[in-house]
Amino acid sequence: MQLFQASTDALLKPLLTVVGVVERKSTMPILSHVLLRKEGAKMAFVAYDMLIQITTHADFGVGDDVEKVTVAARKLQDILRALPAAGEVSATIADDKMSIQCGGSRFSLQTMPGRDFPVLAEVEQWKHEFSMSQKALRRLLSMINYAMAHQDIRYYLNGMLMVLEPGLVRAVATDGHRLAHAAEAVEGLTSEDSLIIPRKAVTEMLRLLDDSDEPVDIRIADTQICFRFGDIELISKLVEGKFPDYKRVIPTDYSLHLQLGREELYNSLQRAAILVSEDKLRSIKLHFGENLLRISSSNLEQEEAKIEIDLDYDGEPIDIGFNVTYLLEVLNMAKTDSVIVSLKQESNSSAVISLPDNEHFRYVVMPLRI
């Protein structure tokens, strides 16, 4: 039976949309496959890793048949990438094999029955439904994603806290050493709730979203969240657990607020980071005083770097240490002309980085002992 026929580029687009969640190594071999579901000319591509399910659609099915079959996702991807971009590709199914042909090239791939492919059970009732633009959701996620924990034993940190409030969606991420908070206004949201979205779902959404005004329909149930936009549907299970109280972490009593050029500060920190690139803590020292900021770093080889930046500050000197990566990541995200650094006089207090044009963004970073 003929399954589909299309150009290489047309086939790669839906496949690359879903392949990001496909596990390279899995205890269930079928999870390394992509489900191809055909209903006449309509084709659906589905990938699932027992946590996240991505579905996208295309119109290049051949014939009126209804069929579903699975094939190794990355093998199919590698084959299509190796074929001419404008080449015409056709696929047929026979005897548990998928035959792919493009010009003089032919491939035969083993398949598994589509009925054996696990899919997320459909939710009968959603608690919350609202929409926001792709660029607004992408902005919200990008402002906090770098602060998510990675493979932390505190599993609830390996993701993003989403807080729903009337007219507002907050996003919070922390790995225990720093915390990022951002928010976006949302029309039509009248209820309150909070949920934890796993790290992989946040990463996949950032990969798939663009900077358009096209809407993303968001639906939330007790155990799942669903994002629909364009031809894409991403459904993710939610993380169980209690996220730390972010309100208690963000200081509100800092009286010292210093505005610094973002690019100059970023470049200076990059220079200081060179000598501590192999240091586990990647520690640097910041000295505020005498109308300048002095950034210094040193390593076990007794090598030193010192960079000075002019600063409008003539108060008592402040010396404070940080992991330079935590500072570089927030400055790289910001893309603004300047940032505001809020401090206390004590060298062991955290610092808060905010943006002049964003009342909601707060980034709290814990100090290192120096």
Could you describe the 3D structure shown?
Helix 1 runs antiparallel to helix 2 and helix 6 runs antiparallel to helix 7 (324-334). The chain has seven helices and 24 strands. The strands form three sheets. The chain has a twelve-stranded antiparallel β-sheet with strand order 1-6-7-8-5-2-3-4-16-15-14-9. Strands 13-10-11-12-24-23-22-17 form an eight-stranded antiparallel β-sheet. A four-stranded antiparallel β-sheet has the order 20-19-18-21. A hairpin with a 3-residue loop joins strand 14 and strand 15. The mean pLDDT is 94. The longest helix has 12 residues, at 262-273. The chain is an alpha+beta fold and 370 residues long.
What is the CA-based Rg, rounded?
A: 25 Å
Main beta sheet strand tally, sense and closure: 12 strands, antiparallel
**How much beta, percentage-wise?**
35-45%
Determine the N-to-C terminus distance: 70 Å
Chain oligomer state: single chain
Helical residue percent band: 10-25%
Q: Give the overall silhouette.
A: elongated
Poorly predicted segments = none
Task: Report the strand count.
Answer: 24
Strand order of the largest sheet: 1-6-7-8-5-2-3-4-16-15-14-9
- Give me the secondary-structure category: alpha+beta
List descriptors.
370 residues; alpha+beta; twelve-stranded antiparallel beta sheet; eight-stranded antiparallel beta sheet; 7 helices; 18% helix
